[in-house]
Structures are given as structure tokens and as C-alpha cells.
């Protein structure tokens, strides 16, 4: 086992192509919940199972996205036998449902076109003078989409955490001290 994290670039192989490599007697062992990838002489191998398959973002912008989980294959980097991975998108609802069932706390349910916005406010010694808003600068309304305040005097150094799903766009955070 390697003491350093290794990575390899592989190319997507359609399930139809992958099933041609692995099928016997008209069976199709590669299901919709799986995906395949290969490149000459490059593959995942024993000990890699459970590791992520990441999709690099276009032109190096943004974070990579996990699309697969290393699962199985015939040997390691054998010609005509792609590596087989669990297709994360196929199981996304189950993953979310299962993970959220064990968190015991708020579990975000944002749509694909949304992001989770988290606002944390640490107040000073006079929290009752503090208020804040988040406004969507791209929206037609100037009404805040999130807000906080009315902290009791005895909540010195209170931390306020608010989570909400928001659509792509530009937002403005405003904090006020009434003193």
C-alpha cells in the first residue's frame, strides 16, 4: 500500500461498451447504478475499493465533484476491461436520506441549482444592539431573504447560525449596531 495519495486520469466508458467487455451469456453485469472508466495501462486496483472517482471541473475552475466510488474490475489495468465504479448520482437520494437520518440535526435539502448559505454572527457585549440581513441583489424584491437580531441582553457573545438554500446570484450581507 502506498504511503502517499495516488491519483490517475481515466476516461469515461459507456455502460453499453463496458457490458460488452464483461458480459457472458447475454448477461449485463454493469447496471445503471454503475459506471466504467479506463485508459491504457491505468486503472484502480486492489486496495482502492471505496475510494472516490472525481470529475475535474471545466478549465480548472471550481471544485471537483465526486461521481463514482471505486468498486470492481477484472484484474488491474487489463486491456479491454475497464474499471467499474458505483455511480454516485444513481444513489444520491439514498445517500442523502441515510446520512440525514443519522445526523440528528438540520440536514440541508437544496436543489441542484441552489447552494447552502450559512451565516454565523458573533455578537459583542451588547447583543441587543445587533441585527443583520441578507438580501438577494439580483431579485426583484429588496426584502431580506434571511435576517437575525433581537438578541437578549443576557446572551453576551451569542453565536447565531442560520442555514438556508439560495439560488445562484449576488447577495448582500448587512450588519447593524444600533448604538
UniProtKB/TrEMBL annotation:
Residues 1-100 form the Peptidase S1 domain. The keyword Disulfide bond applies. GO terms for biological process: proteolysis. The keyword Iron does not apply. GO terms for molecular function: serine-type endopeptidase activity. Keywords: Disulfide bond, Virulence. Pfam families: Trypsin (PF00089). SUPFAM superfamilies: Trypsin-like serine proteases. InterPro entries: Peptidase_S1, Peptidase_S1_PA, Peptidase_S1_PA_chymotrypsin, Trypsin_dom, TRYPSIN_SER. This is Peptidase S1 domain-containing protein.
